[in-house]
């Protein structure tokens, strides 16, 4: 077996890879009488296949989102625009107790196919049903079959993440 790279060196190298920023959301029906909406900011999101249409989202193993997606097969992804940096920052916070307050003043609606919150003003919306979950180190790769894909907003450019900061293509 080869030499193991340090997590700091690996993190620094990956910070040089610009990535789009999305919000992964789901509705957790098992949390209380009406359930609770859950969301997380992600940069590890990609298209996997066109036929069938599949996407992949990487979530931290044992996180709230990982727990919800283990029992809730339907979820959504909102591709954030450069004007939605505040949303990305809010849902990237670690160690929060409840997601309920995070959605409080965010414009969203329920996805028709997933029932998950979909962010208003997002550049694109993808609603998915989990096809496969793959354990990968300290993350779970959630592969979703795309049920719907829409591009509701053409305004502005994408929000990206590079060298540990949100950036805009300009």
The major beta sheet can be summarized as: 7 strands, antiparallel
Q: Which quaternary structure do these chains form?
A: single chain
Amino-to-carboxy terminus distance: 43 Å
Please estimate the helix content.
Answer: 10-25%
Beta-strand content: 35-45%
Kindly state the number of beta strands. 12
Sheet with the most strands: spatial strand order: 3-2-6-9-10-5-4
Q: Could you state the order of secondary-structure elements as H and E?
A: HEEEEEHEHEEEEEE
**Radius of gyration using CA atoms only:** 16 Å
Question: Mean pLDDT across all residues, rounded?
Answer: 91
Helix-and-strand structural type: mainly beta
Q: What would the principal axes of the Cα set say about the shape?
A: globular
Low-confidence stretches: none
- Number of distinct helices: 3
Give structural attributes.
170 residues, globular, 14% helix, 3 helices, mainly beta, seven-stranded antiparallel sheet, three-stranded antiparallel sheet
